[in-house]
Amino acid sequence: ITISKEQSKRLYDLVKSLQPQCLVNSRIGNGMGDYESLGDNLLPTIPLSIPAESPVTMNDTWGYKSYDNNWKSSRDIIGKLARLAGKNANLLLNIGPRGDGSVPEDCVRVLQEVGQWTRAHEEAIYGTRGNPFRHDLPWGSITARSDKLYCFLDNSRQSQLTLNGLNNQACQVVSLCDGHQLPFSQEPLNESTSLTVGLRPTDDPMPVYRIDLDGPPDCSKQVYMQDGGRLQLYPHLAQAQMDGETISLNSQSLGQRYKKSETVSITSAGTLVAWQDPRLTLSWEAWISRSGRYAIKLQLPVQYNQAPHQISHQLRLTVKNNGYEQSTLWLSVLENGAAEADKPFELQQGPCRFTLTLQHVADGQKMSLQHLDIAPVE
Q1: Per residue in 235-263, is it b (16+ CB within 10 Å) or e — as a string?
Q2: Radius of gyration for the alpha carbons in the chain, expressed in angstroms and rounded
Q3: pTM for this structure?
Q4: What CA–CA distance (Å, rounded) separates 184 from 198?
Q5: How distant is the alpha carbon of residue 293 from its chain centre?
Q6: DSSP-assigned letter for residue 27
Q7: Largest CB tally within 10 Å, which of 4, 171, 201, 334?
Q8: What's the CATH class of domain 140-222?
């Protein structure tokens, strides 16, 4: 069911006339609303520049279902909270009470555990802004405020944290769960630095480490491969060219996620949509930390509870490294939202800067792109 722009405005005006301070989300439609409501259980791929929230379920359903006991763990909810904070988005957590108004015991337990963690780490969540780097971090999420960075680790048993591309000098690193200072070292890396922090195992479901800096976070505008040799490249970081001329694809307007665009663009959640024109190329430039063979995987968005599907596309992938060019025809069948290049590419000298270009070979079916995954081949 869709409503007209006039109907959306009438509904919006009615709400404001009854309660002027009430916030209306973008699901009112037609580009209206005070903030963006993302897809159900959706995590944006980019830090958002407009107010936004993601509605998240405690289990698999929105209301109470007697048969639905597939509760998310407190660690899962905490992870979603951290990732959304790192993208400048709010977490709207849904619970389904029983018919008598009581809340299921398992739901109460998870909420209490999330509340305990939040109280202990609130300075890393409330009043912060999202990830100041141009890339995600393979070990978790990051937020910032004034002269501080907050690093959320997915693996509480991790022994080391590495952060490449920080131009500031670190003054100290503190564990929020116990207040202990941690040993660290910082070395030059190309045009920036590499910060390494020694960690201790902890029972904290998601440990957070505060990095105190010598000023406001100054992060490299380059994309750096992080520890572990993995890298994710997002559409908004690419240089888009049509017939050799640079164009802009970004859209940060309210409700863009719900529009079925007829022309190629990047939604407010960071997904490239309606891409089919072979004249359009997307190019990324990044620093890679070591030489070796790397596999590239194309990740498409998959809707919640979507059945596996196959879509055929022909894409050309070109990698340039220190004047050496490798090109492969990516004849791909995309199943359940992913496809892999037919062969790895090799970087002979590391660390080094490389350029990766992606192009449709034929004007075929429209496709969407969430990101590219680059990982070393063992």
Answers
A1: bbbbebbeeeeeeebebbebbbbbbeeee
A2: 22
A3: 0.85
A4: 6
A5: 25
A6: G
A7: 334
A8: mainly beta
For residues 39 and 228, what is the distance between their CA atoms, to the nearest angstrom?
31
The answer on pLDDT for 114 being more than 90 is yes
Tens-digit pLDDT profile for residues 240-271:
998 889 988 876 454 544 445 567 888 877 88
Its sign, for the CA torsion 227, 230, 272, 307, is: negative
Q: In angstroms, how far is the first alpha carbon of the chain from the final one? A: 50
3-state SS assignment for residue 4? coil
Tell me the C-alpha distance between 137 and 142, whole Å: 8
Cβ-contact 214, 171 below 8 angstroms: yes
Which tokens go with 163? 């952060």
Sign of the Cα pseudo-torsion (57, 61, 64, 67, in order): negative
Delimit the domains of the chain by residue range: 14-120, 140-222, 231-376
CA distances (Å), origin 291, targets 17, 223, 241, 294, 351: 62, 17, 29, 9, 7
CA 187 to chain centre: 27
Q: Does the pLDDT at position 325 exceed 60?
A: yes
Q: Largest Cα–Cα distance of the chain, in whole Å? A: 69
Q: Which residue has 């680790």 as its token pair?
A: 153
CA dihedral 65, 68, 70, 71 (to 10 degrees): 20
With the C-alpha atoms ordered 100, 106, 107, 108, is the resulting torsion angle positive or negative? positive
Q: What is the CATH number of domain 231-376?
A: 2.60.120.260
Residue type, 95: I
Q: Which residues contact 66 (CB under 8 A, 6 or more apart)?
A: none
Q: Where are the beta strands (DSSP E) in 123-207?
A: 140-145, 148-153, 160-164, 170-175, 184-189, 192-198
What is the number of residues in the chain?
378
Q: 14-40 b/e with 16+ CB inside 10 Å = b? A: eeeeeeeeeebbbebbbebbbbbbbbe
